[in-house]
Amino acid sequence: MHRIHIFLNHNASQSASHDWERVIRTKLYRSELTFQPPGTTADFHLAVKAAIATKVDVLIAVGGDGTMSHLIQELAGHDTAFLILPAGTANDLARVLGVYASSMQRAVDVVRQDRWKRMDLIQINDRFMATNGGIGLVSDVAQQINRLREIVPGFRLLMRVMKQEVYGILLGGSILASGVKPRHLYVESDMFTGEITTPLFLVNNQPAIGGSFTVAPHTRHDDGAFNVTFFTPGSTRQFLYSAYRVRRRFGPENDPQVQSFETSAIKIKALDGKPLDFVGDGELLASDLELSISIRPKYLKVFSQAKPALMRTVRSQRVRGGAA
To answer: Angle between the 20-27 and 104-112 helix axes, to the nearest 10 degrees?
Structure first.
């Protein structure tokens, strides 16, 4: 009999619209189930550590990418498998794993069927990221959303209705209000080394951010590498054009304002004297003048409904958009 620990986040933007507890109890009734709210961030981390220490078979988290982000900080490198049941706004990891709230029964079935895989994680200094993140506009917008969740009554309801479109609206509003604010960085990796000025520097472990911003269409989370994409526009107008192309699913290959490549490690240093706020999986993971980012292959055990992705046909063409 499986021992399963379930963290049910009732504050996630979509959790109230689904009776996850009933579905889990119905589908996994043969297992020993323990339900627990995440509580405070500190309580959540302690509870996950305790569950791992007692060697539970499965951890299930009902929440969004933020809940998942806190969970993987403790699960990284362990053999405990986990299932993310999407109840947040973007649900980026759940989407790429083929787990959808619209099919609750099938989502929970993957545990009963023991359908798990190992995926790579990206390490940013001493923290881990499963999906996508970066510096600049993506960090500013994510932190703005997290602040609005806490201080604006009704904002969680707005997110429940608009879902990932909230990110695009706030991003557009920020650019129109104050333009793009580029950062001056020094980047060092096996694929690109040099100084850059960019308003948006992204590190990607899967193709899309927010479900629709497909910035790295060829990237997978199980190939031992991650994608780096940064924008180098000469003006706000050029940046908006490049971002529009990405939103319409045009790859970065033919855009001279975008550079994209894959690597297994990169170092980033702020040349403007301001800390680099790196937001990944919707959470602030690091704030420092220097960041060391690397891949940790097969470092997380996850349940998945997604079919195995086809291997890329040309692995030698790793640089796109002019990076050298």
So the answer is: 40
